[in-house]
Amino acid sequence: MHGHPTDKLVAGAIMGAILTALLVVLLVWLDFPSDRHYSAVVRLAVPALISACLLFPRPLLHRTVLRERRDAGMLDEDLNLLLVGRALGLIGGLIFGISLASEIL
């Protein structure tokens, strides 16, 4: 009925990578923040922070504050692997987004 906990790791990594890569390409294309005023590190930190703000709050809340309200089939191990997968996806999405932005733009 429920999948293996590794499925949560892979799902989190894929979702994190796709979201982060899209944000990197979009913000580079929109030139936000402007490359005239900010360094490349800041230009990559902004999509990484936005991705982190979108990816991590819900699993962290289910892991800590909303522990009683989560699904009975969701174990702590599942949430841990989901968080690890999203972190790996964020890093991979940054790398993929940089390469995609340099090819497209």
UniProtKB/TrEMBL annotation:
It comes from the Bacteria. Keywords: Membrane, Transmembrane, Transmembrane helix. The chain crosses the membrane at residues 9-29, 41-61, 81-101. This is Uncharacterized protein.
